[in-house]
Design brief:
Structural class: alpha/beta
Helix content: 25-40%
Strand order of the largest sheet: 5-4-3-6-7
CATH class: Alpha Beta
CATH architecture: 3-Layer(aba) Sandwich
Number of strands: 7
Distance between the termini: 72 Å
Radius of gyration: 22 Å
């Protein structure tokens, strides 16, 4: 039996199926977690509080967690960085956790004082983004902590600005990062 045409001449069944497919796609897109892909890849060459230079190219080929914070997100950034590092049993084989401080606006005369406020433990290096170039490139909010999952190719795979530190969310983020790692990839920066 043939489907009777709609008043505009098109059969009804294919139109209904097409509409249902379109709605299903829209519903799936709305339910998907927010993912942001920044192109070109994340690029930086920044010094940490100890004067060591860190380059984004050092991390290519494996996922990286970037914990970025300005003045307003400093406490949350410190807590998230510590938790993400602490949940990994072996820092030599874990996902690199890279802390970045958005320090745009700090006068040159105060930089030495500000640098001295960062951790003295060399394992807790914080990259100092004095001119805010990385923060602007990634559209980071200077009043919040932002977590970015950077894929092995350097693109931002996922980002969030969580309101509170959450162990379950940290474990999920580390698992997602591990899923992005190429087979056999291990080791952390420095």
């Amino acid at each position: 039996m043939r489907t009777p045409p709609h008043r505009n001449g098109w059969p009804r069944a294919p139109a209904v199926v097409a509409l249902a497919c379109a709605l299903a796609l829209l519903a799936g897109a709305a339910a998907a977690p927010p993912a942001t892909r920044v192109d070109p890849p994340v690029e930086f060459r920044l010094r940490d509080q100890f004067g060591r230079t860190h380059d984004a190219a050092d991390y290519r080929g494996r996922p990286m967690l970037l914990v970025a914070a300005g003045r307003g997100g400093r406490a949350a950034g410190t807590a998230w960085g510590g938790m993400l590092r602490g949940l990994q049993p072996d820092s030599a084989t874990g996902v690199p956790v890279v802390a970045v401080a958005d320090l745009r606006g700090v006068p040159r005369l105060l930089r030495r004082v500000v640098r001295g406020r960062f951790p003295e433990d060399r394992r807790q290096a914080v990259l100092l983004d004095w001119d805010g170039a990385l923060a602007r490139r990634l559209a980071l909010d200077p009043e919040r902590c932002t977590l970015l999952l950077v894929a092995p190719d350097g693109g931002v795979e996922w980002r969030t600005s969580p309101a509170a530190v959450d162990t379950a969310a940290a474990r999920a983020l580390l698992a997602r990062a591990a899923d992005l790692a190429p087979a056999g990839a291990a080791g952390s920066h420095r």
